[in-house]
Amino acid sequence: MRKKLLVIEDNKRVLEILAFALGREGYQIIRADSGSYGLHLAKEYLPDLIIIDLERKEPGNFEICRELREAGIHKPILLFLSSEKEADMLSALDLNIGYIQTPFHMKELLMLINVNIWDVSSEMNSGNPAQFLAFGRIEVDTEQVLVLKDGLPIELTQREYDLLCRLASEPGKVFSREELLELVWGYTYMGDSRPVDTTISRLREKIEDVPSRPKIIVARRGRGYVFTGKT
Predict the structure, then answer these.
(1) What is the CATH number of domain 4-116?
(2) For a designed S-S bond to 53, which of 80, 99, 200, 205 qualifies (C-beta 3.0 to 4.6 A apart)?
(3) What confidence tens digit (pLDDT) does each residue in 20-36 have?
């Protein structure tokens, strides 16, 4: 199931850039060009993570954060801050909110989102999924939303991470492309399974020693894909 990100940004051009970049990573983007509208959307859609960048309009960043918390919305929040002074002010408020200081690279933002967004393991079949899965040289930390190989983090898109977690949740089980489309992409099979094959290919490039001869994620001819965990 796609993660919902609420982006509250009063600069419409920046809002469009963020929505495009984050949407490309597989997130469902909810857009708001003002704090008040963002508060309304947060209550309506209950997003998995909220990104706030308000500079020109009232209420500002801190006020919206306080209003979200007072409204009972305790999902992770990331703020765009422009100075260390603002970071100190945020710490003093003790609202348990993350931030990234501008200017920043998109990769930094994506890493912060991956660390802060809610645990995708809650979507797995098991009622009490493990928070740390180890398969030889590959480790999946579902609490921190991190994948490591030989102890080093691997940079994955949200879609790649979700797909890996789904496959790794049941090692040895063959998932058909149709099943993966529904479980990871959130829509039923409409005659085109190419998104699955494309994402598997990208994932192999990042986790396999020899992507052309995969050992970890293996295709079963005419059936689908299986996570072996062999490295």
Answers:
(1) 3.40.50.2300
(2) 80
(3) 999 888 889 999 999 99
